[in-house]
Each structure stands twice: as C-alpha cells, then as structure tokens.
Recover the amino acids of this structure.
C-alpha cells in the first residue's frame, strides 16, 4: 500500500497521518520493530526531522559517559 505525500499547513509532508495509520494496519508490530532498530542501531542513526529522514552514519556516534 502506498500513501502519497500531501501538503499540510503549506508544507509538503512525505508521511501524512494517513501514512502512519496505514502502516499500523499493515504492520501492527511496527512499534516493537522501530524500538529494536533504535536500540541496536541507534549510534549509527541520525534522525533528520525536517527532512523526514533517518540517515545511516558510516561511524557510530560516540555517546558521552560519566567518568
């Protein structure tokens, strides 16, 4: 199923609310899947909210730890 992007409040949105609704209907396990992806690949992922993208980084982000 493909849900086309559309304009919302004057901005073209690739994933309108109906996209996420369709995704939930097709894959009810989507939340668990995304949780797994972020837990296991999080240091290599960069969320680009304005562009509606997730970028896979060549090198993982170094997380700061308390000394």
């Amino acid at each position: 199923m493909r849900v086309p992007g559309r304009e919302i409040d004057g901005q073209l949105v690739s994933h309108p609310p109906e996209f996420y609704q369709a995704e939930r209907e097709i894959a009810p396990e989507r939340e668990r899947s995304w949780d797994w992806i972020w837990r296991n690949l999080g240091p290599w992922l960069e969320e680009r909210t304005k562009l509606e993208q997730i970028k896979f980084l060549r090198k993982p982000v170094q997380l700061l730890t308390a000394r």
The CA atoms of residues 49 and 55 lie 10 Å apart. The longest helix spans residues 30-41. Strands lie at 6-8, 11-13, 45-48, 53-56.
